[in-house]
Specification:
CATH architecture: Alpha-Beta Complex
Number of strands: 8
CATH class: Alpha Beta
Shape: globular
Strand order of the largest sheet: 5-1-7-6
CATH superfamily: Nucleoside Triphosphate Pyrophosphohydrolase
Number of domains: 1
Oligomer: single chain
Structural class: alpha+beta
Number of helices: 3
Order of helices and strands: EEEEEHEEEHH
Length: 160
């Protein structure tokens, strides 16, 4: 039997915890075209959870910062573990919901090149531009009826 390799005490590994929003209108999905590693890619509004933030707070903030839309999460569509080409691991919580209002004139994150609405066929035709395969997987899960209540993710805090 081969010994199990265990990292040393100083070899800490942590996945990136991210959130994404999925919003639809007239059969089209809200997406962003963003600059990533020198390429223009398509993604749902998404980003990292910041220190002290809940997942729901993060998805609302990221959607606003990247699209100018106020997002109201309705349910969790899926949780995805993805290992990128750079060998980084991402745990992504994708929330589906409604867009409450648009903040006209709001400056968007500098990496955002465009906010657009695309249907699935148009997105599949541009599959080479997707930031990751998770983009279409989230849409497939949404279209297949994946609906987990927001209460599936519990925020627990330690009392001082």
């Amino acid at each position: 039997m081969d010994p199990i390799e265990r990292p040393g005490a100083n070899d800490r590994w942590y996945p990136h915890v991210t959130v994404a929003s999925l919003a639809t209108r007239d059969g089209k999905y809200l997406l962003v075209q963003e600059s990533y590693n020198g390429k223009s890619v398509l993604n749902q509004p998404a980003g990292h959870v910041e220190k002290g933030e809940t997942l729901l707070q993060a998805v609302v903030r990221e959607t606003l910062e990247e699209t100018g839309w106020n997002f109201v999460p309705a349910f969790l569509c899926g949780i995805y573990q993805f290992v990128a080409a750079n060998h980084e691991t991402y745990i992504r919580f994708t929330y589906a919901g409604e867009l409450a209002s648009k903040c006209e004139g709001r400056a968007l994150d500098p990496v955002i090149e465009n906010v657009l609405w695309l249907d699935r066929a148009a997105l599949e035709n541009r599959s080479g531009q997707l930031r990751s395969p998770v983009v279409l997987k989230c849409i497939s899960d949404f279209e297949n009826g994946n609906r987990l209540p927001l209460q599936c993710v519990q925020q627990l805090n330690t009392k001082p």
